[in-house]
Amino acid sequence: MNDGAPSLHATLTARCCVVGGGPAGMMLGYLLARAGVDTLVIEKHADFLRDFRGDTIHPSTLQVMDELGLLDELLERPHRKVRVLEGEIGNDRVPIADFGHLRTRARYLAFMPQWDFLDFLAERARRYPTFRLMQRTEAKALLKDDGRVVGLEVTTTHGELAIRADLVVGADGRSSVIRRAAGLAVEHTGAPFDVLWFRVGRGPGDPEGAFGRFEPGRILIFIDRGEYWQCGLVIPKGSIEELRARGLESFRRDVATMAPFAAARVGDIGSFDDVKLLTVLVDHLTEWARPGLLCIGDAAHAMSPVGGVGINLAIQDAVATANLLAERLRRGPVGVELLRGVQRRREWPTRLTQRAQVYVQERLISAVLARTEALALPWPLRLLRAFPILRRIPGRLMGMGVRPEHVRSPEAPRPRAA
């Protein structure tokens, strides 16, 4: 792949340099380029192919794609629609969240490999002459002038490079180089569990959609991928070595017990190399901005996997950032107070979502993982089963989130043909 990197010791310039080609970075890159802002997105990997990244596209994100006129094209890519999320506790299967009553065009979750979603955004962004994507380009340090961030130093396959930019946006995830280089303070909430992701083949007669299986001491999430199940085993934090010590056959037996419909296919887990550990973090920056610098997405607030809303919070950050900054940024540098406006806009919805995630972690997940006797159906789930209309509440909160963003940034004229 041609990553577009210039020669050694060169200096590039851009109005905005976005660090990280994940959902927040690619969406912001697309929106700014669409608005006529000279935008450079850098991504340290050669492509977007990372297995077991979050693949849940919620109705709030699908609504953004519809507002951009991209939804129909996006849905031409392979995906699975889920209109009702369900859980299994003991022998009880309970519908938990119903998205069918949302006031949006897409009233469902779309499960799509994240690399397909990111590739789609990159392809559409390249239609604008103000967009550049440099892959195999890794941020190393920030450039500063009199206390203001004015760019960054990066490493490419051709050597070191300086990028001068009026604005640097850190969208480089929970291990953000940018927020660390800027010295931004992080508050950690913590999480009592981690998740092991792996695949098991699907077969005729298997259930469809996405659901969670809750048993004493363990939780297993199933996502229908068509030809296979993407599975997430929730384990107490720090217990991975104990699980490995019990051996692969023990792990396969545990999966077969929780997924009897797929018991004949647990051999698809060939080794522990096929099992990827997601270390769960919940944290947030106390300040998202410095002069010339802004952090969004997981770089500003790492989300728990509860509800699968991390991608969608990142997309909401990107939309809000473009809404607030695009027109001003097209003309020149923006002041730090305007950058802080992004935090003021997005911090409250993010923190409220994190508090809800922590509540579920402490009241449900920790309780299930610590339990040894049979599980009883909790009263909230009994209510959801007895009164279907109540399923609209978690459907609304999970599907649209708190204060969903709508595209307000302009589109510049004369985009380049595909």
Provide the descriptors you would attach to this structure in a database record.
alpha+beta; single chain; D-Amino Acid Oxidase, Chain A, domain 2; 418 residues; FAD/NAD(P)-binding domain; seven-stranded mixed beta sheet; 2 domains
Explain what the structure shows.
- By secondary structure, the protein is α+β, with helices and mostly antiparallel strands.
- It has two domains: 238 residues, FAD/NAD(P)-binding domain, CATH 3.50.50.60; 86 residues, D-Amino Acid Oxidase, subunit A, domain 2 (D-Amino Acid Oxidase, Chain A, domain 2, 2-Layer Sandwich).
- The chain is built from eleven helices and 20 strands.
- The strands form four sheets. Strands 1, 2, 8, 9, 10, 11, 19 and 20 form an eight-stranded mixed sheet that branches. Strands 6-5-14-15-16-13-17 form a seven-stranded mixed sheet. A three-stranded antiparallel sheet has the order 3-7-4.
- The model has no long low-confidence stretch (mean pLDDT 90).
